[in-house]
């Protein structure tokens, strides 16, 4: 493992010592977010003129991806002079951080129309939905693209003050939005919505459900957003009961995962079933079933599939299959 000394004391490029197990995708990037630099009013001028700065482009929540004929896709990281001139006319920047002596800056070019978008792009590159390629990207690439996507989504949805309705302005290197009205000046910070996602087990079987909007045959763990005044454990119990009428106990934390689709943090848990009779209560859930270990291991033969490999839901299921939970 390569080591690098950061100014604030981190020594691991990928700090996997924070987690006992296989770390979820979109996290553990090893990126030094350099929050001190965000306070500098001239940060953009400094980094735009630094030859060690690399830019990642975001267009309408899609990321610029290189897809060579041979090899795996990767995030396109451009030097300033490599950015096509027709894509430079934007003021939507975000300072992402530093890693291995390189600075990373995100640029949002969502105002560029689709016709202009493809002019001058690097060969074999295009804007792709991160959900289509995230699972096969290098961890660092997946992390910075998800980080960039989440910040720009937040910026796009806070162009007006929620208190007085005035226009807002971006500050702190893209990490703060301020009301322009002098009598208000309310600051707003990047939002992440916490959601619990849980695998409920009963001896040698687990509870999985599916929504009608998912691809045919796909089943996953149950999940839902945390409500105000609610503990994570209470949210787990409530969501399972709302969706399947199952009561749970022994709620235990597994891990977390940034999930910028559009702006969530997934908090993974295991929970033991106290009751087992299923009754669907939630209209969003099309089906909920108990599946044995053997059935889950042979899902494809049953005409069913598990959630995507880049999701914490898949990790919860696979760890259970290995008795690693």
Describe the structure.
The chain has 325 residues and is an alpha+beta fold. The chain folds into 2 domains: 16-156, Nucleoside Triphosphate Pyrophosphohydrolase, CATH 3.90.79; 193-321, Nucleoside Triphosphate Pyrophosphohydrolase. It contains 8 helices and 15 strands. It has helices at 35-38, 43-48, 114-117, 130-133, 139-156, 232-244, 293-297, 312-321, and strands at 53-59, 62-66, 74-75, 93-99, 102-108, 125-128, 168-171, 176-179, 187-188, 193-202, 205-211, 222-225, 248-259, 264-273, 285-292. The strands form 3 sheets. Strands 1, 2, 3, 4, 5 and 6 form a 6-stranded mixed beta sheet that branches. The longest helix has 18 residues, at 139-156. The chain is globular, with a radius of gyration of 22 Å. 33% of the residues are buried. The model is unreliable at 1-11 (pLDDT under 50).
Quick structural summary:
The protein is 20% helix and 29% strand. It contains eight helices and 15 strands.
């Amino acid at each position: 493992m390569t080591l690098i000394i950061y100014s604030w004391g981190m020594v691991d490029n990928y700090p996997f010592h924070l987690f006992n197990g296989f770390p979820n995708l979109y996290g553990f990037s090893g990126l030094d977010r350099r929050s001190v630099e965000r306070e500098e009013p001239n940060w953009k001028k400094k980094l735009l003129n630094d030859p060690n700065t690399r830019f990642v482009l975001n267009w309408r929540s899609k990321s610029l991806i290189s897809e060579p004929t041979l090899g795996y896709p990767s995030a396109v990281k451009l030097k300033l002079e490599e950015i096509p001139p027709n894509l430079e006319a934007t003021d939507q920047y975000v300072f992402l951080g530093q890693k291995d002596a390189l600075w990373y800056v995100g640029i949002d070019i969502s105002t560029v129309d689709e016709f202009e978008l493809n002019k001058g792009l690097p060969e074999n590159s295009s804007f792709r939905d991160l959900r289509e390629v995230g699972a096969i990207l290098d961890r660092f690439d997946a992390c910075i693209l998800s980080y960039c996507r989440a910040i720009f989504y937040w910026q796009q949805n806070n162009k007006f003050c929620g208190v007085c309705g005035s226009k807002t302005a971006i500050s702190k290197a893209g990490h703060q939005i301020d009301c322009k009205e002098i009598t208000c000046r309310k600051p707003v910070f990047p939002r992440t919505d916490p959601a619990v996602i849980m695998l409920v087990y009963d001896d040698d079987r687990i509870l999985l459900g599916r929504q009608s909007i998912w691809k045919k045959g796909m089943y996953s763990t149950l999940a839902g957003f945390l409500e105000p005044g609610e503990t994570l454990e209470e949210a787990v119990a409530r969501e399972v009961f709302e969706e399947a009428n199952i009561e749970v106990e022994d709620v235990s934390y597994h891990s977390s995962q940034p999930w910028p689709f559009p702006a969530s943090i997934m908090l993974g848990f295991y929970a033991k079933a106290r009751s087992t009779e299923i009754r669907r209560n939630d209209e969003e859930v099309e089906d909920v079933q108990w599946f044995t270990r053997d059935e889950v291991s042979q899902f494809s033969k049953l005409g069913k599939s598990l959630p995507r490999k880049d999701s914490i839901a898949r990790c919860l299921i696979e760890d259970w299959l290995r008795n690693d939970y």
